[in-house]
Each structure stands twice: as structure tokens, then as C-alpha cells.
Amino acid sequence: MKRRNECWALSRLAGLLVPMVLMCASVASVSCRMTPEGVVSVSSDVSDPKMTKFSQESQDTLVLVFSEEVELSSLEVCKGSKDNLGECVLSESQLEVRPTGSSSLVAADGGDTAATESQGMEAQILFKDTSQLYVGESYILSGVAHDQDGNSLLFQIPFRGYNSKVAGVVLSEVRTEASNTAKDTAKIEFVELYVHKDGNMAGISLYNAYDDKQGEYEFPSAEVKAGEYIVVHFRTMEEHAAGCIDETGNDLNASTAPDSCPDARDFWVQEKEARLGKSDVILLRKQSGGDIVDALLYAESGVKDTTRKKLLDAAQLAVQAGAWQGSDDVATWVVSDGLTTTRTLCRQNISGTSIPGASKEHWFVVADKSATPGKANSTERYVKK
Asked: Which residues contact 248 (CB under 8 A, 6 or more apart)?
């Protein structure tokens, strides 16, 4: 899935890279561990089959990769999540298993030992009827994998209804500070996106490395048009929770909480604490764990070495993906000195339906009281006195 020399970096960001969280259990006792390929089952019997990869290829196709040849049974797709499982929408008779041959697996111990390759089994799960699967909705694929020695693996895989019309969006503005969070004058940290291509937001995700414990924010289904601005508020205010409404429909004024943006789409991250740092790396992905389509790397002049190291892996991924025209050296990042609730980081090269470049030259901190969430960015640069 990734080149061998990327394995070490990927293992540290595996939670970021896995398309979905893979939950697994074997008939014997079982735990799970992180690898460069994702979350893999590890049982007390080392001969039990293991799932090493999962991907969603299209509206009607999932791909599973196992550590050895297996037969799949008891397959079904249900609505909801592992903690709130709903009705089943696809039974085993509506799912077709199509083995697609062997798959090369890379194993690495993270040390000096060279990576080794082995052969696993890849299989497609085809949905014969997709009429009950809706874009952006949560589902669980469950089943049992049996190997030739009688060992079994029970698995549950969360996935979402496939988005075949992904909107084209880019990062536009970032506020890292908040104030008066309990009052009607509250200002909240946000990441603003600009839509350059019509489509649906379902599955598009945002990640920031400064506070990676919370994982990615994944958008629900929402049809958007080119020229729109989308503001993702990076915390939900407890005192105003009832007004923190995700504007997924046509009413762009449904969100009534303080700092909501009139006539622009508001979305709210379900967290109470700050997540964005004054030095940070923000990644925008086409889907959770998928391709990085845009990135912003920024740091204060006196950024601590511990913070820089914390951001390094995400920075390397952005550069390797071509989403950032610079390097993982902070000298090529945007200088973020002077950020306040009214001084934000703004992109300067957004226009129409073109996809702007992403580099240090394209972003700067704007002047006092020049934050413009939900609107075209200010061109007034902050000058330190």
C-alpha cells in the first residue's frame, strides 16, 4: 500500500491512514495491534487468519485482504455502528464473494530488520442491491473468515454509503484561537473550506496533527455548489449546543449558535476543548484515510522542538502526496506569529473553479479584525509592531 521506506512514518499515523476502524475478534482470545496497513487482529493462536487491509472501491464493492486463503461466511450488512447496530439491509444471499487472487503483504518490525513480503488473499465483496445504501450513512459489514486448518476470525467493518460525486474543496482560512465560549459573543476555532467543484461532502475529512488524539473530522452527506464557503467550528459550545447545527440541507442559516456564519455552511466538531495549535499541520482528505488533496503547514517563529517533532509525520505525508509545495522543514511553512480571534491565517490564491497551489507564499496572517469566516478572504496582511 505504501513504499517500504514510508512504513515507519505510516505506523505512527496508522489511525489517520486506515480508511475505517477495523474491529476484529477470533474464536480464540484476541487483541488488536496497529501496523502500517491498519488495525490487525492478533489472537493467542498465531495460526488464526488475520485481516490486513480493507478498502471501499465503489458504491457496490468492498475489498478485504487476509493473511492467508480463507472462506467467508455469515456475511451481512446492517445499519449503524458497533455500539448502536440497527436493522440488516443486506443478507448473505445479497452479497457475492469474489476472490481476486493473492496480495503481497509487507511486514516490518520498525527496527533495523529489513521488511519481508508474504502472500495473502484478496477478495471483493459485491453488493447485488445498493438501493438500501445511502451516501454518507453508517453501516457495518460483519462475517466470519475460516482458514483451511479450521481456525476462524469474526470481523465487523464500519463503512459509509459510497460517495460517487465527491465535492472539490480546498483549505481557505483558519482561526486557532477562541474567546468568550460561554457567552453570546463567543468566537470559536474554525477551519474554512472553499468549494471549487460541485458535489457531495460525505466522507471528506479534516485532520490536524497538533491534537491527533481525536482523530479525523469526517463530513456528513451534504450537496454543495462551487463558490460556497464551508466553516467547520472545531468545538461545540455546551451552553449553546442546541444551536450548533450542521447545515447539510438548503437552509444555510439553520445554525443559530454564536459565531455561526450567515449564508455559509456551518459544521460543528463534537468536542469541548481546543484542538488547533498556533503551530500545526492540517490535512484535507478525499475520504477518511484516503488521498490527501490539500494541506496547510504553519508554525510560530519560536516553535518548540517537541512541537515540531509532533507535527513531522503529518508534514511528511503532505509533502509526499504533493499537497504542500515545500518540505517538512519549518522554514518552508507559513509563519503564524500574531494569531488572535480576529487575526486568522488566510489563503490568497483562491478564485473560481481553479485548484490553487499550496505553499508558504499563498498564506499569511491577516490584519486585526480581518477574519472573514464564510466570506471571501481579506488581503490585509498583519504587520508586527
From this structure: 220, 221, 222
